[in-house]
Design goal:
two-stranded antiparallel sheet, three-stranded antiparallel beta sheet, mainly alpha, about 5% strand, about 375 residues, globular
Length: about 375
């Protein structure tokens, strides 16, 4: 495992050094013909806009090459325009400021970055509905006031970290109430995760579960399943509450049991045989989350989950199977092109499928560095 990961780590470093030196000040989302696009003017508030910065901080932490630090700091400063845009702030603040400002504070001690982190955390806390959930997207008339999504579990570390930094338990309490609501209403009896849940914003009552970015109502969007197993693992790490680790295992078991033998992850575990769309982003996220959960179980799970060694081995082996598929079948290692992963899908019913998406590259790098020990843990 180590030899494989070190080989891929070397490929990542060679490629990303070339990309960082030619990309300019772009904030990329996808790549067209191997060239990253730029969302600086297209939509500065887009939820993926922190991941290029996160990639740069991971590379800086691993290599200490100054070019990575420079690119990450440029992007973080650009995102101030998002931070000061009320309608541009939503449930995905963790994806934007954990990957940038928290990473910066960890690696450089920047007080400016810490200030941004706390501003983003306060805004996320302000989205909390006392009925029990953090609201997802904005809208002009309040039509989405009761909407929450599984992705938000990945943003909760922003609140846990804010409580730790400030000594104020409010942030942590909000995160835990949302995580508990997710256990109750997002995770089905078989361990599969709903993408979207609509609550009555006044009472918190469960109203509906739209299909979201998966195949349809009752299906299992694979990226959402990845967010679930990863997100509950992080809530356990920040709180040590065993119900979060137990739920992470339930979600991971479903993910592992439905992962094909070749490690190729579809867009939805319940999608039809044709068209058989794939989502390499979900694969990278799931692999990284499984590695973290495997390590967590070995270190802290023996008194909570029975058979942790066997379970941890299974999660680790599945993560490696996915990573081997990605790096051998769906990665572009040409230093003249910008993206690594080639076959990510944002949503099953979108017109476009199987194209590069920046967070796929981030989580692939994170997973590989997690194995080699080069990761900067930002969550």
């Amino acid at each position: 495992m180590q030899d494989y990961a070190k080989e891929i780590s070397s490929k990542i470093k060679k490629k990303e050094f070339a990309v960082a030196n030619r990309i300019g000040d772009k904030i990329p989302y996808t790549a067209v013909n191997g060239v990253f696009d730029d969302w600086t003017d297209k939509n500065l508030c887009w939820w993926t806009n922190g991941f290029w910065g996160g990639m740069m901080w991971q590379l800086y932490g691993a290599t200490k090459e100054e070019i990575y630090k420079e690119k990450a700091m440029e992007l973080e400063e650009k995102l101030d325009g998002n931070l000061m845009n009320y309608n541009g702030m939503d449930h995905d603040s963790g994806f934007k400021w954990l990957t940038t400002s928290h990473a910066s504070n960890l690696l450089t001690g920047s007080k400016e970055s810490l200030n941004r982190l706390l501003l983003a955390a306060a805004n996320l806390a302000g989205r909390f509905n006392p009925s029990g959930f953090i609201r997802a997207w904005n809208d002009e008339k309040g039509d989405n006031a009761g909407w929450a999504i599984i992705d938000c579990l990945m943003n909760l570390p922003l609140l846990y970290i804010a409580s730790n930094v400030t000594g104020d338990p409010r942030f942590k309490k909000i995160a835990m109430v949302h995580a508990d609501t997710a256990i109750k209403h997002f995770i089905r009896n078989d361990g599969s995760a709903r993408h979207i849940v609509i609550f009555d914003p006044e009472t918190g009552d469960f109203l509906d579960e739209p299909g979201g970015q998966g195949y349809g109502k009752g299906s299992v969007w694979t990226r959402g399943q990845s967010w679930a197993l990863y997100g509950f693992t992080m809530s356990f790490l920040h709180t040590k509450e065993k119900r979060y680790l137990e739920t992470a295992v339930r979600c991971a078991d479903f993910f592992v049991n439905n992962t094909p033998d070749d490690g190729r992850i579809p867009v939805d575990f319940r999608q039809p045989k044709e068209p058989d769309y794939t989502d390499s982003c979900a694969g990278a996220i799931g692999a990284s989350g499984l590695l973290l959960l495997s390590k967590t179980l070995r270190n802290e799970g023996a008194d909570i989950v029975a058979g942790v060694e066997e379970i941890s081995d299974r999660y680790e082996q599945t993560a490696l199977r996915i990573l081997h598929y990605l790096t051998e079948n769906d990665s572009d290692w040409n230093t003249e092109t910008d993206n690594i992963l080639m076959s990510c899908t944002a949503a099953y019913h979108d017109k476009e499928h199987e194209f590069p998406i920046i967070y796929g590259d981030y989580y692939l790098i994170e997973a590989i560095f997690r194995i080699t020990g080069e990761e900067t843990y930002i969550w």
